[in-house]
Specification:
The chain is of the alpha/beta class. The chain has two domains: 3-109, Nucleotidyltransferase, domain 5; 122-315, Hexokinase, domain 1 (3-Layer(aba) Sandwich). The chain is 36% helix and 23% strand. The protein is built from twelve helices and 14 strands. It has a six-stranded mixed sheet, sandwiched between helices. A five-stranded mixed sheet has the order 3-2-1-4-8, with helices on both faces. It is globular. The two termini are 30 Å apart.
Length: 340
Amino acid sequence: MSNAEHVLLADIGGTNARFALADAAASVPLLDDSVREFVVADFPSLAEAAQHYLDETGATAQNGQPLNGVFAVAGRVDGDEARITNHPWVISVNRTRQALGFQGLKLVNDFAAQAMAVSLLTPRDVVAIGGAQWAPAPLSVPRTYAVIGPGTGLGVAALVIRDGRAYPLETEGGHVSFPPGTPEEIRILDILSAQFGRVSNERLICGPGLVNLYRALSEIAGEDPGGPLEPKDVTARAAAGDPRCVRTLDVFCAVFGAIAGDLVLTTGAWDGVFLTGGLVPKLLTSLQHSGFRQRFEHKGRFSPAMGRVPTLANMHPRPGLLGAAAYAVELFGPRPPARA
């Protein structure tokens, strides 16, 4: 396949921009050896960052530059434009496509890409949390999956597979109201309500949520939580055996499990929940040895059914690019023959 038949992929966050190429006709479309990462602040626009990648990798107009692209962005895609939180770029599909000389360009939300990535995951890419196991199925088999991921915020999406096609469902499920499940969590809700007013799941289940939980647990204990704290401080102190930080991770994992279970009930994702986002690999051991799975399954009359739903930590190193590659297959890959 020539470069001109490749699809340019991008995964754009607030700090870094990752680029790669995809072969939309291949069974493994993401070309791992093509991945490059750049600091967004080094470029005045997405188009210039993308062109720098093409120049650096030799995929230029002289030897067959890609003609199509799929860019996943950490922000809401509204028509032709996307704005990324804490990011200097305002991304226009048409202007970027024209600047790169592309025939086609698709701009997608990063969590829609995280959902689409599920269609390309293999058992090697995931670690099961709990006893329920998962095996991938071809697109011809109907499936409904949920995707939830704590990072800077809490992303929530779903993937519906029907009639040989994958349909990602973008949501703002991270902003659903937090439902406490224990007396301790009720007290945490009271404390966070005094600070924030309405308390969403994202106030607890994300990087800053670790700090919110730590401070709330300190207040419950009648102790001063101390000065400025970052999420990495909580996880580091927990690893060193600090009791309150250990408890913070325990509560975090239990609430995360309860929310993931509610997501199954809400979306009908009986085929599995994929845990993604920047915190999941760092907290894998905590998730495996916590109340995550117990609270996930603890759904009253639906507990037996929940016990059969896999919960899977997505350990793929580049899930955003993988999801963009899945979009590339969907949009620019070979079409199956029409039915008679």
